[in-house]
Amino acid sequence: MNTDSNLKNELNRIHRKGYPAYKDLKGSYRFPAYILHIDHVQGDPFAAPSKLSVEVPQKQAAFPEGLFDASYKRIALQDHLTRTFGRALSAHMFEAKGSGKSGLMSISRPGQQVLERTALQMDKDRIIARFEVGFPANGRTINAVELEKILFRFLSDAVKRALYYRSYDKKDLYNVVHLAEDQHFIREELIRRNLTAFVANGSVLPRESGVSDRPMRGAVAFTSPKSMEIEMDLPHKGSIRGMGIPRGITLIVGGGYHGKSTLLKALELGVYNHIEGDGREYVITDETAMKIRAEDGRAVSHVNISPFINHLPNGKDTVDFSTEDASGSTSQAANVVEAVDSGAKALLIDEDTSATNFMVRDTLMQSVIAKDKEPITPFLDRARDLYEKQGVSVILVAGSSGAFFYIADHILQMDTYRALDITEKVREICPHGESQGVLKESTFSERMTKSKANAPNLLIPESPEEISDESESIASIAWKQTDRTLRVGKIDKKHDQIRIKQFGKDSFSVGRDTVDLKYVEQIADAEQTTTLSYIMRYVIEQLEKKPGQEIGPLLEAICKEMRENGPGIPGRFGRKPGQGQSRGTIPGNLAAVRPQEIYACVNRYRGFKR
What we know:
The protein is built from 17 helices and 32 strands. The protein is of the alpha+beta class.
């Protein structure tokens, strides 16, 4: 392997040459305490920055193995190191001068959520940090003197600050890992106590603004209703009290601007852990929970929406339903079915972003419009069975319709950001299960059973007992029993490679088809969207190789690979530190995604055909 002295000699040799000569630097160089890999060199100073990585042996880094001997601790520690490394690079941003992107130095910039990323990975053998550098130039002439500053001074300083245990305040470092252990403990308690979510007293739920995910200053801290308050004894924080939301159907009501949607939003992002100081560190939701909404105009690819929609006037098949432009009701029906099929054990719904005709039909409307003229069976009529037969809980924000009172197990009222349990009060007004607006039709389970012969793409366990089978997760059971098949049409390629392009957090393109993820609201980071784009390309490649294969086992294999290895490019894993992978094949801008987002992504692709 080349050494740092070889790198200096190369820099001297190419100084003031044409910019393409920078490509001669590609390779690995051993520095005294780490190895520098120049994995990709940009084509000119105005192109995307060059991609580099630093590899530090744990013998030099010296992080105690107890800080990362469990996945949840490792992910939290990696996140903290990434943030520290990023701040260290930012301290020298553009100190090296030149044209275009000269002097740029950056690594992933995590938000309030703690996500596993490819930007920085560690195990008992080594730490790898992947980042970008704008190689300096004057016009399009190499300025190797400025690059030498970056590689030998600025980078060395960042590595020293962020990738060595001795550089950290030990108390701060252990606080990060202890928080992760406490959060993991709460997640396990949700299962033990049969809860959907937990919201700690003192949590700050409102955000700074519509464009900031930081906590609002001076916000009313959350306090649990006494009737729903539980206590947990965390490994490090000790005793903590807060609201436990039991499994079942929970209704959140209240006047406008009193905090209903704010609570739901916190629960929605509670599928991820949050950093200290976020205010939602101890807001923990079932990690499979899926936010459901109407999504006018979304693409739907061969989804069985018959539990909710049947006998369309145009005769369109709802057992194997596809459309390029879904209505509010058909899109929300597809969203519910996708979520259940992906293994979601909780649905989070806000009435404000739902299709009214999908959610409820009141008694008067049923009297005016005959049953055989209405193809939609509203969610109100399915929610109870969805929980009792499929084990899928529902947390629903409602502000206008009282029909949901009749099916709710628990009812919360938000009053100036304070939660009140009004379940018993409502029970006195409308006894449980006596709504005149609930249609007496076949149950969700019965409808799916009737559909099995034609499209068994949603064969879900028939009872909560099956769902809790420790030998398999609900997701694996659902996918293993599906024989849903998809075929791809002609796709645009370049050099026999399917082209993908990302457009921020909300969408990406595969060939000429755009996958719109704007309303898949639990995608918290653009790097998750990047990961989904690679997954979608891999799915298409596999379907091209083997047309007509079942989509379920393919998705299951991808999710298994993600669970075992973290984020990466499907089919090209083997990239965990210590496995001798080729670093250049692993982008440094990928973040972990859940099966729920993978399934949502696949069903929004417009390039499938019958």
